[in-house]
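Curious: why these numbers?
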Amino acid sequence: MAWLEPTATFDPDRFGAPIVGICSALGEHDSGVHQHRMGQVLFTRQGCVRIDAQAPDLLCLLPPTRAAWIPAGIAHRARMRATVDYRSVYLDPRHWPHLPAEVVILDVNPLLRELLERMAEAPFATDWSQGAAAHLAGLCIAELQAAGQQPMRLPLPRDRRLASLVEGLEQLPPPLHELARTVGASEKTIGRLIRRDTGMSYQQWRQQWRLVRAVEQLAIHQPLSQVALELGFASDSAFIAFFKSMTGSTPRVYCR
């Protein structure tokens, strides 16, 4: 196990091991775009992480106490706001080829949390092919495969006419009629482009943006009223109803 300092670089591929784990706590960190030959389970004990994945272009938000699965070979960038206390467990895809082929955000139950902690803390020289370590790895893989997925993925449009949406992800996307006026294309054309690139209608995409942004702001302890106002809701109750319809729980319960 390595405790990764904020200024350190780390390459899991250089070990040639089936499993490599690290622990760290970083603040205001940007990994830059990179990729590795190993798949990565990134688990946050505290703080949230933005993950920008490429091919397809995708923004994922990793909330506290959840995990992101990043498949081997996927170019990605991790950006952390405030302090993020995290664990990374890297898995050789040749040993476990049946994990998801795309970036997903996973629920973490108490058992999976403990498994990830123990694997992240294990010495680099651990023999994962036998004994207790083999059982630990097998159980962790089974729990990862059984874990529920969180709706924290925002596919990004690729058409150059919609570049303003991708460049302005910090701001609430405008209503469709305003975007059409700004872009100089019809609402029908924009709707077609958005659906082609993201698989969603524009309204669905805008609502998904609201959800991802809401979780990110709540995770860094922004007041609920402020988040509701930023996201364009007329009242706190309207925001809570929206959040519950998207996640199945209220903001307070989800963040707890």
About this structure: The mean pLDDT is 92. Strands lie at 2-4, 19-30, 39-46, 49-53, 58-62, 67-70, 76-91, 104-106, 153-155. The first helix runs from residue 110 to 121.
